[in-house]
Every structure is written in C-alpha cells, then in structure tokens.
C-alpha cells in the first residue's frame, strides 16, 4: 500500500515528520532556558494556564533600577525615536507598564529637559500622551503645551486648544497662562484674537499685574489702527508703568519676564543678550 502512494504525498509526509521533530527539540530548549533564567521563588501561585517556570512577580521586574536611571533612559530613548506618534506612544506605554503609580514627576523633568533642547515636537507628543491617559490635566501643563505648539509652528492648533480647554473659563485662568496665550497671539500677529482675549479678561474684572501685557495690548490696538483705545488702555493702567518694583525681585517674576522676552520677538531677545554681555563684562 505504501509503495503505491505518489511522490508528492511521500514528500509531504516526510516534511510533517521533520516539523514534529523540530518542534519537540524547540520545546525542550525553551523549557531548559526558562529554567535557567527563572526568577527567585515568590508567593505567586502557578496556574494551569501558565507555562512552567514563567511566573514573574510584579515587584521583581525593574526593582533594581533607580528612578533616576529610568528617567535618563526614557529621555535618551525619546531623542532617538522618529516622529511617529505610534512609536513614541508605544515607548511611553512600555516605560510606565510596570509602575504602580503614574510617574508624573519624572515626566515633568523629561519635559523640562526636552524644552532646553528645543525638542518642541517631542514635548507636544509627550504632553498629549499624558492627557490621553488622564494625567497632568493642570493649567501649567496646558500652558506648556500651548507654548510648545507655538514654537513648533502650530499656532492654529494652539489657538483651537485654548478655545476648547481654557478660553471658556477666563474668570479662573491664572494670569501666567493668559500671558502665554497673549504672547502667542502677539508673536504670530493675531491681534484681533489678542484684543478679544484681553477684553474677555476685563469682563471678569481681571486686573493684570504685568506691564508687559498692557504694552502688548496697546501695541495691538495701534497696529489695528485703534489709537483711541490704545490711549485709553495706557491711561487706565498707567500705575503699572510708574510703580517701582521691590529692591529684590522674586525669582519667579524674573523667570516669567525672561520667558516673555523669549516669546515676543527676536528684537527683544537680541537686546537682552547685549545687556547680559555688558553685565558679564
């Protein structure tokens, strides 16, 4: 009977036999490797669905890696990845997979480091990933995202995000975040939106504390041909230009002023660099 079978069937039977032999060898090698690298004994119970010697306790994975090294590893990884959203999101998902609590503090440090390197597109991706996880939903994060979108030449997206998330609640938005958006409008010559935002803040009796905001609004009125409104706004808030500040300004105020100089235009930035060089001399 076996002599009468065709050569094709004989070849198929031979291949199936080889596959069975190879499969048995691979299974034996897999079990041997799993035995060699199996973790220390744990309190986890073996189930029928688990392969032999493959149960790894959750606390055992990455417990010997410090938080600083984990943060440094993610930062270097983000710098090397391409701009694909799926790739970046996948790396972030893998990084937090074994964390008991969401590492918001470490991500804030990474975002600050990315800002120093002017990796604005990556800052946008990381913040959007955080927001998709329901984390970092604060005004500080929103302001950081708007600033990164502006520096990444996505001002229309920054404007839409402001209108959708922040612009409908102007009575409670911190002035620091409002100043960021005013600077974005001023930088991109969106003067009508700037004036509209400032009028909305005034409607809630919000009084600005920084003369830089008033100066930008006044300049916007002038460039729009509204000279009368410019004079009115300067007269209304003239006390901000005449009041003398404290002898030792707070570090936060000095930081905000430097940030504002960075967002307005290139001319103030050059003037600031010349002043800095003269002081160093």
Structure overview:
Mean pLDDT is 75; it is low at 1-5, 19-46, 53-61, 245-252 and 254-281. The protein contains 14 helices and no strands. It has 281 residues and is mainly α. The longest helix has 30 residues, at 7-36.
Uncertain parts: 1-5, 19-46, 53-61, 245-252, 254-281
Report the helical percentage: 55-70%
Shape: elongated
Structural class: mainly alpha
Q: How many extended strands? A: 0
Average pLDDT metric: 75
Global Rg: 30 Å
Q: Could you state the order of secondary-structure elements as H and E?
A: HHHHHHHHHHHHHH
Number of helices: 14
Q: What is the distance, rounded to the nearest whole angstrom, between the alpha carbons of the first and last residues?
A: 103 Å
Strand proportion:
under 5%
Q: Biggest β-sheet, characterized?
A: none
Write the layout of secondary structure elements.
Elements lengths: L6 H30 L30 H14 L4 H11 L8 H13 L3 H13 L6 H13 L3 H12 L8 H13 L3 H13 L7 H13 L3 H10 L2 H4 L8 H14 L1 H15 L1
Summarize the structure.
The protein has 281 residues and is mainly alpha-helical. Among the domains are: 66-137, no CATH class; 162-271, no CATH class. The protein contains 14 helices and no strands.
């Amino acid at each position: 009977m076996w002599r009468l079978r065709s050569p094709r069937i004989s070849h198929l039977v031979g291949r199936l036999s080889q596959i069975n032999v190879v499969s048995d060898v691979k299974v034996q090698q897999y079990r041997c490797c799993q035995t060699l690298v199996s973790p220390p004994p744990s309190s986890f119970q073996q189930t029928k669905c688990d392969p032999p010697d493959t149960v790894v306790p959750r606390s055992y994975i990455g417990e010997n890696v410090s938080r600083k090294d984990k943060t440094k590893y993610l930062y270097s990884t983000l710098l090397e990845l391409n701009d694909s959203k799926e790739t970046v999101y996948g790396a972030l998902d893998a990084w937090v997979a074994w964390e008991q609590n969401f590492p918001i503090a470490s991500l804030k440090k990474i975002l600050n480091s990315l800002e120093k390197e002017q990796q604005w597109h990556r800052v946008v991706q990381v913040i959007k990933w955080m927001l998709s996880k329901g984390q970092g939903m604060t005004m500080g994060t929103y302001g950081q995202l708007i600033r990164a979108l502006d520096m990444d030449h996505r001002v229309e997206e920054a404007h839409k995000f402001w209108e959708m998330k922040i612009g409908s609640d102007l009575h409670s938005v911190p002035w620091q975040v409002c100043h960021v958006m005013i600077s974005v409008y001023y930088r991109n010559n969106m003067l009508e939106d700037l004036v509209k935002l400032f009028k909305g803040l005034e409607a809630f009796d919000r009084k600005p504390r920084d003369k830089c905001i008033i100066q930008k609004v006044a300049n916007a009125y002038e460039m729009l041909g509204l000279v009368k409104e410019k004079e009115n706004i300067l007269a209304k808030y003239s006390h901000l230009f005449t009041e003398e500040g404290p002898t030792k300004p707070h570090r936060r105020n000095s930081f905000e002023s430097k940030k504002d100089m960075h967002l307005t235009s290139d001319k103030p930035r050059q003037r600031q660099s010349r002043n800095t060089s003269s002081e160093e001399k």
